[in-house]
Specification:
The complex is a heterodimer of chains A (about 190) and B (about 130). Helices cover about 60% and strands about 0% of the residues of chain A. Chain A has about 190 residues and is mostly helical. Chain A folds into 2 domains: about 70 residues, Rna Polymerase Sigma Factor, Chain: A, CATH 1.10.1740; about 100 residues, Orthogonal Bundle (Arc Repressor Mutant, subunit A). About 5% of the residues of chain A have low confidence. Chain B has 2 domains: about 80 residues, no CATH class; about 45 residues. Helix content of chain B is about 75%, strand content about 0%. Chain B starts with 10 loop residues before the first helix and ends with a helix. The chains are: A mainly alpha (about 190), B mainly alpha (about 130). Chains A and B meet through helix 1, helix 2, helix 3, helix 5 and helix 6 of A and helix 1, helix 2, helix 4 and helix 5 of B.
Chain lengths: ~190, ~130
């Protein structure tokens, strides 16, 4: 099966959006998309009637995972970690010294299951911005687990973490995203 | 837990509940979870099955703490929202599009060269083999 360049390029914007949401770095996202598009030319699938879009997304997904594995093996070559944003990583997330909520955590928290498509689009867009602002490690763990549906064990393997650390990072990522969304929606 | 913020909770009741919580957390930690521990458990529950003892403790806390109940629901909603597609239009910058086109052209050329080499090997292979015999 051979696809034309125009057919392949027509999928590039959607692939780029996918890659951006996974790696959070424009240059890397473009590189991964390019690798996937080139693979469609060099190693197209043998079977007839393979849907191009599905094939490209599956290929890109593998490229993203390869990228995470590469980062694990080459921590020094990977994008620098924003240390300033790590400051809040171990924060209390609104708990006092007894582990109780300091104030109502639900104040200003907009429900995320809105039925209004426009509001939902806005929420998803805000979530993406919050996700992009997470410390790199929290971002990677959350993306692989929640966006790519990887099991916690797979995430641990891909990122070279202990299984327990994945749980801790996921907890922190979720709490930071909650706090961030709360700020986005105007909570004090 | 934040009984003070509950609109249907009087300050007196909130204070009593708060004292009871602190007493439970201090004297009966084997049965009572603090809100922070509950949230950690709620997050872990999204990623795998929790031990029975922890589920029991969480059940107790869930019954008593409205704030944590809502937060637990919120975590589930957060997961659903994260899985929904990002509906922002992405246009390829002209430079990126040109770069991708160039990469595709180069890949096409590479594939043709590889095909030509394969054909040449296929043509010459059996002949060479016959010659050798």
């Amino acid at each position: 099966m051979a696809w034309t360049h125009e057919q392949i390029l027509a999928e590039a914007p959607a692939l780029l959006r996918y890659a951006r949401s996974r790696v959070g770095d424009e240059a890397t996202a473009e590189d991964l998309v390019q690798d996937a598009l080139v693979a469609a030319v060099l190693q197209p699938p043998d079977g007839p009637e393979v849907p191009l879009r599905a094939w490209l997304f599956a290929t890109l997904r593998h490229k993203v995972w390869d990228h995470y594995r590469w980062k694990r093996r080459h921590p020094a070559d990977a994008a620098p970690v924003d240390h300033a944003s790590h400051e809040g990583e171990g924060g209390p997330y609104g708990f006092d010294e007894h582990g109780s909520w300091q104030s109502d955590p639900n104040r200003g928290l907009s429900p995320l299951d809105s039925a209004d498509p426009a509001e939902r689009r806005q929420l998803r867009s805000d979530l993406q911005r919050c996700l992009d602002g997470l410390p790199q490690r929290l971002h990677d763990v959350f993306v692989l687990r929640e966006l790519d549906d990887a099991t916690a064990d797979h995430v641990a393997e891909a990122l070279g973490l202990a299984r327990e650390s994945v749980a801790v990072f996921l907890y922190r990522a979720r709490q930071q995203l909650r706090t961030c969304l709360q700020h986005h929606w105007g909570a004090p | 837990m934040t009984p003070m913020q509950k609109p249907d909770t009087t300050p007196l009741r909130a204070a009593l509940v708060r004292r009871m919580e602190l007493w439970m957390a201090a004297h009966m930690p084997w049965i009572w979870l603090r809100c922070e521990q509950f949230q950690q458990g709620a997050s872990a529950a999204l990623d795998g099955r929790l031990p029975a003892w922890l589920r029991v403790k969480m059940g107790l806390h869930r019954m008593a703490c409205r704030a944590c109940r809502k937060q637990e629901r919120y975590l589930g909603q957060l997961r659903q929202l994260a899985k929904s597609p990002l509906d922002e239009p992405v246009a390829l910058p002209p430079a990126t599009e040109e770069r991708l086109r160039a990469a595709l052209r180069a890949a096409e050329q590479q594939r043709r060269n590889a095909d030509d080499q394969r054909l040449a090997l296929a043509d010459s292979g059996p002949g060479d083999a016959r010659g050798a015999r």
